[in-house]
Design goal:
By secondary structure, this protein is an all-alpha fold. The protein has 16 helices and no strands. Helix 7 runs antiparallel to helix 8 and helix 10 packs parallel to helix 13. It is globular and about 65 Å long.
Length: 329
């Protein structure tokens, strides 16, 4: 699996000798020490991840200019559950919504006639299959890991939404939600390409400007794991042999809320130290998709029973995915 950790982007090839020069020549650190290994990892990863993040956010900002909440709601309203779950999960990947948008989106979808299970498929996929994480995973680990992440995330979103829809739990939604009228959807503005490019630039300013410090912090944590964490310890804690590793990784990931870009360097360091792919993917999915802030926000529209059931089904899906990939890979 270590071979998959090599970045497929040849444009970053010059960073490796530059990181070696800065770490071992300029700073004078010994390549054989824990500190030298950690600092070299940090110097190499910071510019690579930040450049990738900027390019990805710019492109995603342009793509997002084609989607609005009103357009997404119209696409999902009136869909049958099975087809609606699939479409909702796919739209969740492509649309610019996260946990902070959960309450207004939930109200808008439900009052517009979107089935509850279909709404949940969208709400699960939107944060869980993060497009920034997807592209960064491809750039850093290759298509195999990126495809596993996207495919399993879609399966979890579709299956969890379908299960919740079949349980007919509308009575567990806070009553005031159904009393709220859906607002009229404003006409979608037809943007010029200049305006869409400006959207991409604005996305870079807003997102990269907000998260770059968290990204650097994630890389620093990844560097510490890479340089100091014993491989034998990680193999026993997050390896295939420990049956409890996957559920524990999911439990640890929930309170460790982070943006997608910030957790990728930690994932990279864990895989490089020999942690099992399924366990690491389960950890990453729980960090991104099962956050405490999202639970607090959703509590405004869901009863506690429905909120716990929602999180429990998603967590169970993530655990099963972790076990599956540890068994077959």
């Amino acid at each position: 699996m270590n071979a998959g950790l090599n970045c497929p982007c040849e444009a970053f090839g010059a960073l490796a000798p530059a990181a070696d020069w800065a770490t071992f020549r300029v700073l004078g650190l010994d390549p054989g020490t824990h500190l030298g290994s950690a600092v070299r990892f940090f110097i190499f990863e910071v510019p690579k991840v930040l450049v990738l993040l900027t390019l990805v956010v710019f492109g995603v900002g342009i793509i997002r200019s084609f989607f609005t909440p009103a357009r997404t709601r119209r696409l999902l309203a009136g869909r049958r559950e099975a087809a609606g779950n699939v479409l909702a999960a796919l739209l969740g990947v492509a649309t610019p919504f996260c946990s902070c948008s959960a309450v207004p989106l939930f109200i808008g979808f439900v009052t517009a006639g979107v089935p509850l299970g279909v709404t949940f498929s969208f709400l699960i996929a939107a944060p869980l299959i993060n497009e920034v994480a997807l592209v960064l995973l491809f750039a850093l680990f290759g298509w195999r890991v990126a495809a596993l992440y996207a495919g399993t995330g879609l399966v979890i979103a579709i299956a969890a939404g379908w299960i919740l829809g079949r349980l007919r739990l509308e009575r567990w939604v806070e009553p005031w939600v159904y009393a709220t009228r859906a607002g009229d959807a404003a006409a979608d503005a037809r943007l010029t390409w200049r305006a869409r490019l400006e959207r991409g630039r604005d996305a870079v300013r807003a997102i990269v400007g907000k998260v770059w410090l968290y990204v650097v912090g994630g890389i620093a944590l990844g560097a510490a794991i890479h340089g100091y964490m014993p491989a034998d310890f990680l193999a026993s804690f997050m390896g295939r042999g420990a049956w409890w590793a996957v559920p524990l990784a999911v439990l640890l990931g929930v309170p460790m809320y982070s943006n997608a870009a910030g957790v990728i360097p930690v994932v990279q360091a864990l895989l490089g130290k020999g942690a099992a792919l399924g366990t690491v993917l389960a950890f990453m999915m729980s960090v991104i998709g099962l956050s405490l802030p999202e639970a607090i926000i959703l509590r405004k529209v869901l009863t506690l029973r429905l909120l716990l059931l929602f999180f429990g089904i998603v967590a169970a899906g993530i655990v099963l995915v972790g076990y599956l990939f540890n068994a077959v890979l």
